[in-house]
């Protein structure tokens, strides 16, 4: 009995720990030591035509800069529908009159558009031969085709499509009538799921012509639920399920289009940091994440996980 408790059990626990740590450590080392060189990036990205949707949570912004550094042409769409949502929240929280809202609205639009122009100017300075940036209401799925049509019209075709936009509603579902409202749920799913599907379907014929690649930003919350983020988590579950299934369909029809599904966790300076109780040492770096996404696109990976350790352990703890 003493031998069992002092020798065998600790050995088994150590072996189990090594088995659990092996996948995240492998991915971590791969990210750092199996990254293409700058010349490889230039070959794969210089002059390539990229549609990027979503720059609001910093990862998209950094990704735009990384792509621009290596000479990619960019058409960027950022969420304009978030402005109205923010205005409604302000009006409800502080009981603002319509007159006050009319004063605030143009200021919000100007601030958002100014930031968008700064991103465009920075991308051009970093080396992008062409960068265009536009606001768009991703909640209106009937016009989602406009995103692809505009990019193709401006760039003459598509080599890469990156879908990264998101709405992150928060709050305990059972305590919030707003979260339970069917119109609210439909709008959130329109932004986080339906628009992804519509844009992907519209872009596929163009990517077929160039043997292009698509990257879809899902989340660790698409596999591991979190109280207070039930609606966001459900949209990411749907996104992961749809696009991993789409991968198999593309493979079955021997399509030349590649598809990466990203499972992104908490970054050190993003909005999710304040919503999830994650130790800082498990959080990811935004620039490193952007480089990793670019790497996964260039290498045409099926999946991209970052930050690796947090994402794997979150799944492990949920499974237990």
Explain what the structure shows:
The protein is α/β, with parallel strands linked by helices. About 60% of the residues lie in helices and about 10% in strands. The protein has 11 helices and 7 strands. Strands 3-2-1-4-5-6-7 form a 7-stranded parallel beta sheet, with helices on both faces. Helix 3 crosses helix 10 and helix 8 (about 180-210) runs parallel beside helix 9 (about 230-250). The longest helix is centred in the N-terminal third of the chain and has 32 residues, at about 1-35. The chain is globular and about 50 Å long. The model is unreliable at about 105-110 (pLDDT under 50).
Keywords:
single chain; globular; alpha/beta; 320 residues; 7 strands; 58% helix
Mind sketching the topology for me?
Layout: H1 2-33, H2 38-45, E1 49-53, H3 59-69, E2 73-79, H4 81-94, H5 98-126, E3 131-136, H6 145-155, E4 160-163, H7 177-180, H8 182-210, E5 213-219, H9 230-252, E6 258-264, H10 286-298, E7 303-306, H11 308-319
Parallel strand pairs: 1-2, 1-4, 2-3, 4-5, 5-6, 6-7
Helix pairs in contact: 1-11, 3-5, 3-10, 4-5, 6-8, 8-9
Going across the biggest sheet, name each strand in turn.
3-2-1-4-5-6-7
Low-pLDDT segments, ≥5 res: 103-110
Structural class given helices, strands, pairing?
A: alpha/beta
Order of helices and strands: HHEHEHHEHEHHEHEHEH
**Number of beta-strand segments:** 7
- Kindly state the percentage of residues in helix: 55-70%
- General shape: globular
> Mean pLDDT, rounded to whole units?
81
CA radius of gyration is: 21 Å
Task: Please give the largest β-sheet.
Answer: 7 strands, parallel
Individual helix count? 11
Distance from N terminus to C terminus (CA atoms, Å) equals 27 Å
